[in-house]
Amino acid sequence: MARGQETNQFVNSTAVKIQERHGEETGKEFYNWSGRQPTCTAVRCSELHHPTNGRIVAHSRYCGRKQTEFLCYSGYQLRGSRRITCQSDGRWSTASPTCVDPNPNVALGKPASMSSHWTTHSGPASVVVDGNRSGIFLQTNFEYGSWVKIDLLKEDTVSTVIVVNRRECCFWRINGFKVSVGNNGNKAGSNTKCGRRSIAKEGPNIIQCPKMLRGRYVFVYMPKKRWTTMALLEVE
Prior knowledge:
Homotrimer. This protein is mainly β.
């Protein structure tokens, strides 16, 4: 958090002049000020806060006014002006910038479902879209063609899907998994294929689609002839 910035100005910027006046009765001359003496007050702009995924890096002066500069952390892009100035009217020259992810996780917090649920060892389907790569995992029963589905709630653009496999055990169980994107919410194989992974690794498995795909549903699924279980931490 950064403190509010100040800049000084004259409340009455008109120069005070001496005005001459002649007395009518005494015949003596005397002088009087044309107005009240001006005062200087500090103008304070509102407090600034570090942006999410970024920070305030510098304070400087530009033409006598306080100026603040912002920086985003690696992997995030600045949206807005990098520098803003505290103006004489007590307002910043523009709104504070924000730091945005150029490739946001569109699956985060969206509805998720799975072909079956092995309740003894795992959490509900929603755990794969909670943003926690080290939390509880989802697990299906041992079955043929198990799947996990993410409903993006509307047709969206997908270029990359990250499947975060469990780490402590049995990550090879999802060897050969596939990813598809499309508007068919009932059959994973009916949508456009994004990619597959013959040999899955523990932790993140990054699947880069051959082109930008559009669709409402993202499926991570096993081949129909493969009898196994899926245990996933996240689908991003």
